[in-house]
Amino acid sequence: MRILITNDDGINAPGLEVLDAIAREIAGDGGEVWTVAPAFEQSGVAHMISYTHPTMIAELGPRRFAAEGSPADCVLAGLHDVLGDTRPDLILSGVNRGNNSAENALYSGTLGAALEGALQSVPSIALSQFYGPGNARLDDPFEAARTHGAETVRRLLAHDAWASGDHTIFYNVNFPPIPAAEVKGLAAAPQGIRAGVHHTVEAQISPSGRKFLWMRGGDQRSPAPPGTDAALNLEGYVSITPMRADLTAHDRLAALEDALR
């Protein structure tokens, strides 16, 4: 199996090393793992592509490349430049430092890469490691992802439900913020939303008197509806959410048609 891996934390992020180990286990002795990852951290860029300026790419080693662009740029670079005519069988993005459950999914560059892979009709999975008191001080905070990542990917590959309508399905996987031995299992989950959680800004004045704004996220421990991804993560489960690029609110179409008559 040929696997393309990327992330949004950057080419030197520890989570990418975890993902590389997961990918090599999945690919097997005769497989190939190719890395095209951002040269610098690209957290929070979602599905952005560098449409208005070129992206420099550099080869750092065998099958290892860094691109000065977003995670979606890296997927495009991998598919249409680095790998050329030999398309990958699978794209893996992550392992993100921090969860991409609930509303975080909308901002995530990790998911942006998987979304681009799905738009390019390649099976794609985003993987993220929830951080919390149960794992932040472990010698390996990515222990849950490192231990359970390969089996999670295998289960999804065996499930073989990727093509669905006009938009290829991709998967959002979040590992719980606990030691690997305490993980309770895998759980299919819808995307949740944490009550009252949203991004804000914090203003600071520089020594030169200029104002700068820092973007701040909300409390990741805030409750989410039972059975949703963030809630299950905090209960000790690996959440798996099938997603697609169709943003249409299908449940509202009929009412809108009535209103427009």
UniProtKB/TrEMBL annotation:
It comes from the Bacteria. InterPro entries: SurE (IPR030048), SurE-like_Pase/nucleotidase (IPR002828), SurE-like_sf (IPR036523). A divalent metal cation binds at residues 8-9, 43, 96. Pfam families: SurE (PF01975). GO terms for cellular component: cytoplasm. Residues 3-194 form the Survival protein SurE-like phosphatase/nucleotidase domain. GO terms for molecular function: 3'-nucleotidase activity; 5'-nucleotidase activity; exopolyphosphatase activity; metal ion binding; nucleotide binding. Its main location: cytoplasm. Its EC number is 3.1.3.5. PANTHER family: 5'-NUCLEOTIDASE SURE, 5'_3'-NUCLEOTIDASE SURE. NCBIfam families: PRK00346.1-4, PRK13931.1, surE. Nucleotidase that shows phosphatase activity on nucleoside 5'-monophosphates. This is 5'-nucleotidase SurE. It comes from Roseisalinus antarcticus. The lineage of its organism: Bacteria, Pseudomonadati, Pseudomonadota, Alphaproteobacteria, Rhodobacterales. The gene is surE.
